[in-house]
Structures are given as C-alpha cells and as structure tokens.
Amino acid sequence: MHVGESAPESPPAFPYQFRLGLSLVYGLARPISVIVSSDPDDGIERQTWHHVLRVQIHHGVIARIIRWLDSRPFLPSFLRTRLTAWFPGAFLPDTVVLKGIKPDWDDEFANEVRMYDRLRPVQGTVVPVFYGVAAGRGEDGKEERALVISDVGGRQLGGVSYAEHSLDELRGMVKLALEAIYRLGVSPTDANLSNCLVVGDRVMVVDHEQDEELQEEDLKEWSLEEIVQGMVDSIMERHQAVHAPKEKMDVEAARRANEKWRARYGPAALGMGLGRAQCGGGGVAGGG
C-alpha cells in the first residue's frame, strides 16, 4: 500500500428484510466483500459481490415465541413439524447468506436450487446448508428471489498460503470435498480458488449455479476417481502458480500440465459435453 493510502473499506451495513415461508425476517445486511490482493506497490484491492449479502438476523418477539413453543415437550410432533415448515425464518441461525438472482440468470438460479437438493447429504459439511428461497428487495427496490444458505465463514483457497497449510494438506482437503460432491452425481464445474473455502481443517465448496449432473457417458471413458483427481490437480496447479516462489515457477510447464489435464478430463469434469456455455463467476461464503 502506498504511504498515506487507506485500505478500501467494506460496504456499509443497511436494514434488510425478507420473507421465508410465512416468516418475515429482519436484520442488517452487508454485501460480501473480501480483499483479493494486497501488494506493497499496487495497494489493496477489494472485491465485492453486491448480489450476495451476509445478513445478521434480529429474531423478534414472534420468532422467539415460535421457538419457545417448538421447545415445549407438550407440543405434539405434527405441530412441531408444521411450525418448522410454516415459519422457517424463526429457526434460522443468527447470521445467514442471501444470494440473489443475477440478471438473466433464472435458469442458473433454478439449477442451483436443484443442486442443493441433490447435495442435501453433505450440506453443512462440504457445502453450505440450504434453508430455502426467500423473497427480498434488490438495490432497485424491486422484489427478487434469493437463496438462503448458511454462512460458512472461512477463506478463499486462493488466499491461503503454504505457511498456514501444506500443499499436501490443501490437496487432501480439496479432494475430500470434491469426491463427496461427485459421489452424489454432481459435477461441480465452477469449483475454483474463489469458490473453495478453507474452513478450519476442511474445504467447503460454494456457488453451485453452474453445477451439472454427472452423466453415465462420462463414467464410461473415465472412472470417478480419475475425474475427481483431474479436478483436484487442476485447482491445485493454479494454487501453486499463485503461491510458489517466483524463482522456482515454470510457467510453461504449468501451461502444459493444464492443457494435458483439459485434454484428458476436461469434458467430464467441466461438463463441456452437455452443451451449456460456462460463465465465469466468483463466490465467497455464498457464491458469486
């Protein structure tokens, strides 16, 4: 950072409300924002995803009453089930992430809802918990839909150095996460250094709007283990390109390795055989 230059501040918080089921939820929202570069010469660069909000929820009186009723042993189980279904907002954690729909991305939004349903067995361990689709207000004041997911915290894989976790540790964490997703028949086509978050001693993958169902044809040419390993190699080669000492980097070798991986595993791991154009995007906590 240059002398006298201050770090770019994160966006301010603002009052926000959304509806989830019959619940009207209030809180303070702030767009997801992270420092993506901190260079002594170029200064600090911050990236903000305005359609992804971290919301600190204020649980009002009604929500507290509903939670109190739910905790009473005298309440019949069928009523407890209905309370949870009718008023899901009352049972949300204190902080959640709302990922709004991007312009002209209706299909991708619907696809992400489907993917979270398929990934239900690993929600909370490998991917965020999906609480449902909320109706909120966009920056223009218009009502818009948003995914409500858990705030997993953590840091982007691309920002984690080998001083914090060794290369082998990171590779193992990435492999465990991707393998769990692939085994549920989902191809995480947008898993990258931004969408893989290091949370403690594990990796969680966010941003599933471009995920695809793993096709039987893919498994005829490559085994599931080969597809997973190919994806892990691709991600970690990029990580090494960012964090390896520059005097030891062989850019041409990295390029050749990446082309070799794409030629062998690309169509299956990236879903290229399904004919849908891949759109770039980054994500933090709730995706991009």
UniProtKB/TrEMBL annotation:
Q: Which domain of life is it from?
A: Eukaryota
How is this protein named in the record?
Uncharacterized protein
What organism does this protein naturally occur in?
Answer: Coniochaeta hoffmannii
Looking up PANTHER family in the UniProt record yields:
SERINE/THREONINE-PROTEIN KINASE YRZF-RELATED (PTHR37171), SERINE_THREONINE-PROTEIN KINASE YRZF-RELATED (PTHR37171:SF1)
